[in-house]
Specification:
This protein has about 140 residues and is of the alpha+beta class. The protein has two domains: about 35 residues; about 100 residues, no CATH class. The chain has four helices and six strands; from the N terminus they run ααβααβββββ. Strands 1-6-5 form a three-stranded antiparallel β-sheet, covered by helices on one side. A three-stranded antiparallel β-sheet has the order 2-3-4. β5 and β6 form a beta hairpin. The chain starts with 10 loop residues before the first helix and ends with a strand. The model has no long low-confidence stretch (mean pLDDT about 85).
Length: about 140
């Protein structure tokens, strides 16, 4: 079988396409890993999740006291201005946000239709607690 100049058997094109797709996938995966590599990002996600889960599991009338000393220290290192900016409740949207660095916060929704009141942060020496009450 004779091939004319400029004709190929498609092997090279298939290999090039494979490598382009592989490099694109590796780039997307690498950017995802680098974006979620910071410890602050993980702590924001963790504490927002824990607070939302606590609200979901609480019974009406429960007063919840959570030790948030560790995230407050992380937020202070990252120059978040106040503790009130670190822990945010948006009751109308049923969301809890945690911000431990400048910029956006991590938000989690709680699923139960409950009211959350008396949301505040108490300081007792080195210990910092988030206190709130879950209502019907």
């Amino acid at each position: 079988m004779s091939m004319k100049r400029g004709e190929g058997n498609g092997l090279l094109e298939g290999t090039v396409i494979y490598w382009v797709i592989l490099l694109m996938f590796a780039g997307i995966l690498g950017s995802f890993v680098l974006r979620h590599q910071g410890t602050t990002d993980r702590w924001e996600d963790y504490y927002a999740f824990v607070i939302a889960q606590t609200i979901d599991k609480a019974q009406p009338g429960d007063v919840i006291v959570l030790d948030v000393s560790a995230p407050v220290q992380i937020g202070a290192r990252n120059k978040v201005a106040t503790v009130d900016e670190m822990f945010v409740l948006q009751e109308g949207r049923q969301e809890v946000g945690v911000r431990l660095r400048a910029g956006k916060a991590h938000w989690y929704s709680y699923l139960r239709d409950v009211s959350v009141s008396n949301w505040h942060v108490d300081r007792a020496g080195e210990k910092v607690t988030l206190v709130f009450e879950v209502g019907a």
